[in-house]
Design goal:
Helix content is 46%, strand content 0%. It has six helices and no strands.
């Protein structure tokens, strides 16, 4: 599923279903960690509940650890990598959206961008509405829009939202009026 036909097909599921065999086999008498066993958590064979493998025999649980109360999980983002890896296998990502889902996502994104741009222009460039309404023929609608625009620009000026527009306008006028090299006088 690629834009280029020369690329090989890559499976959509990003996580492997089987763990690869470790290139570092356990030493003699050492317990095999859970993530590297082929069978998963066996109830005695090759799994040690002791955090220091080799100190006790395989499958022998420490009675203090077995009877200890459960701890509060650490804060989000402080999880060890092994727990994060288990989370990826326990909660794999969903299937990719179909064409209809992609189109809906794109429409939502476009709508949000248009709303943000309109609000941005309304706050920082309300003078343009005033200018447009003053150029139209006077009737009920344009007069109402002009009056609303007057009140809006006054309120935005009190907030200081008109300052960026004025700075850009002054910079443009200075550049336009400046004498450039090579101009005839």
């Amino acid at each position: 599923m690629s834009d280029r036909p020369d690329d090989p097909d890559i499976p959509l599921a990003p996580f492997p279903t089987a763990l690869p065999v470790s290139p570092f086999p356990p030493l003699e008498g050492e317990a095999v960690p859970y993530l590297e066993t082929a069978d998963g958590p066996a109830s005695g064979e090759g799994v040690s509940a002791d955090p220091m493998p080799g100190r006790t025999g395989p499958g022998v649980a420490d009675p203090v650890v077995a009877t200890a109360p459960a701890r509060t999980p650490p804060a989000y983002g402080v999880l060890p990598p092994s727990v994060l890896a288990l989370g990826r296998f326990a909660f794999p990502p969903g299937e990719p959206p179909d064409d209809e889902g992609v189109a809906a996502r794109d429409r939502r994104w476009t709508s949000r961008i248009l709303v943000v741009a309109a609000v941005f222009l309304l706050v920082f460039n309300g003078v343009s509405i005033q200018n447009w309404s003053s150029q139209q023929a006077p009737d009920w609608m344009t007069t109402t829009v002009r009056r609303l625009a007057d009140v809006w620009t006054e309120q935005m000026a009190l907030l200081g939202a008109d300052q960026p527009r004025e700075v850009v306008r002054e910079a443009y006028e200075r550049a336009r009026d400046a004498e450039w090299m090579g101009e005839k006088e």
